[in-house]
Design goal:
Length: about 425
Amino acid sequence: MNGARSGVDVSIRDGHIAAVATTRIDRANEHIDGEGLYLIPGLWDMHVHLTYDDRFTPSMPRDFLRYGSTSVRDTGGALPTLLPVIARMREPDAVAPRVYFSGPLLDSTPVVYDGDNVPLIGTAIDQASDALRRVTALRDAGASFIKIYEMVEPDVFDALVAAANQLDLPIAAHVPLSMLASDAGPRVHSLEHLRNIELDCAAGHETLLQTRRAILRRARMRDDTAGLKLRQSIHGVQRDDAIDSEADARCHAVLTSLRQTIQVPTLRLNAINQHIPMARDDWQDAVDALPESVRDGWREPPVWLTTQINPSFFKLGQWSVDMVPKLLAADVPIGAGTDTPIAYAIPGYSLHNELVILADAGLTPLQALAAATTVPARFLDLQDVTGTIDIGKHADLVLLSADPLDDIENTRRIDTVILRGRVVRP
């Protein structure tokens, strides 16, 4: 990030930033008076699912832009459903953010998101020998990166990483249940939700891991347990014990191993009990803009948010928030993502919630902005074309009426959104 610069004129030509100067630039065909306003790079949401809930899919692109999200990273969707959506978003006249996608969650049997009570967005890769073929197919379908999920075994994980590296594709991942974060994390480019890091931070991490592997082996031998249920049961048995037995020195070593791996903590999801979105003054207005089929069910918090029905999830939320200063102390990069539209995540709106929670947890406003601008660009190796307001970069910009470095809440004070050099009015 460049930090604050005052009295700057920005010139845009052919969708790119042509000049950034403290002296007056000759006015072009269109002029936006930014006197007294604040210009920031367009925001990214690093963790969305465009096709998770088809009630949201048609309106999502405009919703993202309404709230200043000019780029999104789709982290899991079935290609037959996802590819037509991507194609529409990339049409020349589409009012839609830039979109980068992974395709399906690369999982193993039993697949977590198998279509049974949850959307079918995962696919099984059970043999390491299949990894290169499957990753190549994703690359050929246009995937910008791959997403490795929780049921994969270490040999399949190794093969997927090797295939992605061979094809020059970045890797997003959950830490596989059969691996430690400090083993898997350094070999991928981002880890999502801080999930399974708690196990590696525990004093008895090796014992917990061996127990977990035994549970997985027994379940696979029976071949009668759904992936979602199996994952939930493992976390139910182990997560609280791992959090309660966290060892400071061990955890610092684990986090230090992740210094090159972006963490996308999705605090607005993990810590939703601590930061109930319905308690915000602007929630009802945001809900009013949602599709009619969603509005009534999203106005009031569900029972599980208003009471501690699930103390374990409440504990996870507090642990996730408490992890942020430790990530900062270990120089681990943090990215902003929401898991939209899962668990009351309003497209675009919830990214601002994420930035506020990240700042409350310890990030400075500038660091929070970086989490939604320069850090996502780094994941996709796009630092040369996006993420900051510099000559030659994409003219994806947001003009604010208040200074976000004074208060990160001010990212909501949107005056104008510019995408590909054009003012958009979604």
